[in-house]
Design a protein that fits this description.
Distance between the termini: 8 Å
Shape: elongated
Strand order of the largest sheet: 7-6-5-8-9
Oligomer: single chain
Strand content: 25-35%
Helix content: 25-40%
CATH superfamily of the largest domain: YqgF/RNase H-like domain
Number of helices: 7
Largest sheet: 5 strands, mixed
Radius of gyration: 18 Å
Number of strands: 9
CATH topology of the largest domain: Nucleotidyltransferase, domain 5
Length: 215
């Protein structure tokens, strides 16, 4: 199983990176020395305050960028061929990221302004060759506001027919809807309706980075 190594003398960076790795279910190991890692560690994340030790080490100012940067390495790639950002429009938009067919994250944003800022971060944090934004064609007023808010990001954006991606189950939220829009495929009729936990639904119906890594 591929893992992320974390080595830093910057306590805040360490705390924030570890929190994100745990939240996203990414396997990791804390290192006592930047070179003291086993063969399953594919990248070592450090703060820019730390010395440059070379090897597999990458240094960052931003903890979230550090973790997102590591995703490609964890999947055995130098960069993703295609990153798809899926958006479920609404007053609290859903946001999901699919990298070469693997769902890496899905969340719900508190508002359109927060969504635009988060999409900008995604574009700057991930390693990729091409990127596109897919927006569901529902909720026209909020959809148009979202499209307008993304114009300054210089990213290809197009609308997706939600009719094949709107099969609901009792715990579904905007984040899961955004993941289905990013995948742009319909789930089987009745998928997930008996699932009690969102995590079970996600793992059973999407190819996730956590599932690929066996975490």
């Amino acid at each position: 199983m591929r893992r992320v190594g974390v080595y830093t003398q910057d306590f805040k960076f360490y705390r924030d990176v570890i929190d994100l790795l745990r939240r996203w279910g990414i396997p990791f190991v804390s290192l006592e020395h930047p070179h003291a890692f086993s063969g399953d560690v594919v990248i070592v994340l450090s703060s820019f305050k730390d010395p440059d030790y070379g090897s597999l080490q990458e240094r960052f100012y931003n903890p979230r960028k550090a973790v997102r940067f590591a995703f490609a390495r964890l999947l055995g790639k130098s960069a993703f061929s295609m990153v798809v950002v899926g958006i479920d429009p609404g007053p609290r938009p859903g946001l999901a990221v699919v990298c070469d067919g693997v769902l890496t994250e899905a969340t719900e944003c508190p508002g359109i302004d927060a969504l635009a800022a988060e999409v900008g971060d995604i574009l700057n944090h991930y390693l990729y060759r091409d990127v596109v934004v897919r927006i569901g064609n529902g909720d026209r007023p909020n959809r148009e506001a979202i499209i307008s808010s993304l114009k300054g990001l210089n990213v290809l954006t197009y609308q997706v027919d939600e009719s094949g991606t709107t099969i609901k189950y009792r715990n579904e939220n905007n984040a899961i809807s955004a993941a289905k829009i990013a995948m742009a495929v319909a789930l089987p009729d009745g998928a997930g309706r008996k699932q009690k936990k969102r995590a079970n639904f996600v793992e059973r119906n999407f190819i996730t980075i956590r599932g690929v890594l066996g975490a």
